[in-house]
From TrEMBL:
InterPro entries: Alpha/beta_knot_MTases, tRNA_m1G_MeTrfase_C_sf, tRNA_m1G_MeTrfase_TrmD, tRNA_m1G_MTases_N, tRNA_MeTrfase_TRMD/TRM10
Regions annotated as coiled coil: none
Reaction(s) catalysed (UniProt annotation): guanosine(37) in tRNA + S-adenosyl-L-methionine = N(1)-methylguanosine(37) in tRNA + S-adenosyl-L-homocysteine + H(+)
Record-level GO cellular component terms: cytosol
UniProt protein name: tRNA (guanine-N(1)-)-methyltransferase
Quaternary structure annotation from Swiss-Prot or TrEMBL: Homodimer.
Organism from which the protein derives: Nonlabens ulvanivorans
Function: Specifically methylates guanosine-37 in various tRNAs.
EC category: transferase
Binding-site residues for S-adenosyl-L-methionine, renumbered to this chain: G112, I132, G133, D134, Y135, V136, L137
Amino acid sequence: MRIDIITVLPELIKSPFEASILKRAIEKGLVEVHMHDLRKYGLNKYNQVDDYQYGGGAGMVMMIEPLDKIITDLKSERDYDEVIYMTPDGETLNQGIANHISLKENLMIICGHYKGIDQRVRDMFITKEISIGDYVLSGGELGAAVLCDSIIRLIPGVISDETSALTDSFQDGLLAPPVYTRPAEYKGHKVPEILLSGNLPAIDQWREDQAIQRTKDRRPDLLSDI
Ligand code: ADE
């Protein structure tokens, strides 16, 4: 997979790719991530990328011209499966969307700022609009980092024990069951007996029951979808 990220703040989105699982995925060649500084495509000697909105109102809008230039440049080099715009009015990211996008080869992600990007950029180029939740961030960068993490960890080979991504919360529509590690007892708090029994079918059943119970308690809305 190759991901091209267009941003006015490349420094804001670098670090998630420089540690742990994402770093290793890049080192193993399973994903390439390229940051593109939109300011380099800015207009005039100030490298302007935003302007006042037509019709008046508070807040600047990211201009069409720099975005058109950089998107067109990138598209001339390869075909993109999706050109994604990070925005609070997009489709809310969930595991199903992450699974779907993780199967793609080439992705472009546009990070918005201020009041967002000129609507004509959305009309001309954007194939998917994604929000990471019902709150407004200062820009799309942190959302893009969240999206990238959620999809890169699903690429086969990124997580060493492949089944581990498959048993994440949400993969089967349920929250994950509780997990424990050593010691078996700590300050009087014991690990459930069943997990020490070695009875694998019984352990599987216990985990499923726990996942269902946890989902009922915390996210009953997920069960109504099953
Ligand atoms: N940009 C600003 N807020 C956002 C959000 N909630 N999700 C994605 N991108 C955003």
